[in-house]
Amino acid sequence: MANKPNPFAAVKVVEYRNLLIGRFAFIMGLRMMATLIGWWIYLLTNDPFAIGLVGLSEVVPALSLALYAGHIIDQSEKRKLLLKGVVLYFLAVIALIFISGSFMAHHLNHHGIAACIYFVIFCTGIFRAFTGPVFSALIAYIVPRNDLQNATTWSQGTWLSASVSGHATGGFLIALAGITHTLIIVSFLIIISFFFLVRLKPKPTSIIKGSVRTWESVKEGLRFVYKTKELLGSFSLDLFAVLFGGAVALIPIYARDILKVGSEGFGILNGASDMGSILIVILLTVFPAKKKQGKKLILAVGGFGICIIIFGISKLFLLSFGALMVSGMLDGISVVIRGTITQLKTPDHIRGRVMSVNSMFVNSSNELGQFESGVTAKLMGTIPSVIFGGSMTLFVVIFTWFKSPTLRKMEY
User: Fold this and answer.
1) Quick one: CATH architecture of 13-201+210-408?
2) Domain locations in the chain as residue ranges
3) Structure confidence by residue, pLDDT tens digits, 53-86
4) What is the pLDDT of residues 329-353, one digit of tens each?
5) Buried b / exposed e across 311-339, counting CB within 10 Å, b at 16+?
């Protein structure tokens, strides 16, 4: 009889625990900042399209540099590169603290302040092109291969726990402490993150610097993803599902104008999907998915689209919260399965480049979805745009079901 998998196998590794704690503090701080920025921009402009521009400001540099970042990650010492990124994020928060102060309020109007915020977010998009993939790439260098599925689940659980904590705490702190003091707390979280991440051991480079031309190196990562149909299918499914189902970008409008629950309700709604995700990740840590993971991935994304439609038409706070929470549970299933596929299918020598391609498809889809939501809300109205997004997600799922049999039949 096979031994039951140990749900704590990966976290027994001390270095991995430091990575998880450092990532938790870092992501919590960034999610608090993202929550604050969405609320802050809407207060300054009263324009849904302005919220969409926040996502565009970050995704343009993140997407533009993603492939080059993968090449740099594979030829760099990963711990040092990660710490540089954390320091740059800290400086970005300091800049936002200055922008939120009385000096800027006296010298610029609301649109001028918004422009400064967009510039800082553009810079964080540059930093994210490097830091995001490094976090994921480090896991396989720290944890034994046999424990990679467990490590991936813990990693996603940590990310989601930090996300829900950051979203909810950010909403409450905006109401209780104001924008400037909330940003100061974010800066302290990034300092805590640095304290734990600096304890990681240096990690070897995957390719010798200068031994491979940049474009040839980039093409190697792209070719691998294209040839590995399970990776290509799961990346594409997430890209289009989140692109069209990015209703969370419009939560500031729902909280203030439709559900009328203020900044406190905004924080709760913002954290609802992440609450659902962390619940399901806890279950998957103890009871990992063992069969038909590809089919479960596709069905989970379909359920996510249905939840977005329900959220779009809801006028009741509890129903809206429930729809977002269930959507988070379904998203958590897809995140864990997709993350495990990526870790298990990727060789170490191109891990940075594949993680960067992953960030292009997966991570940047959130900001593209935010921009798409802002544009469609401007053109269609808030509620029709959310219903449209959920419906398009369902269309993508149906298309993937029939056109990607490799993903549908995939098991690991």
Assistant:
1) Up-down Bundle (1.20)
2) 13-201+210-408
3) 887 788 788 888 888 888 788 888 889 999 999 9
4) 998 888 888 888 887 778 877 877 8
5) bbebeebeebbbbbbbbbbbbbbbbbbbb
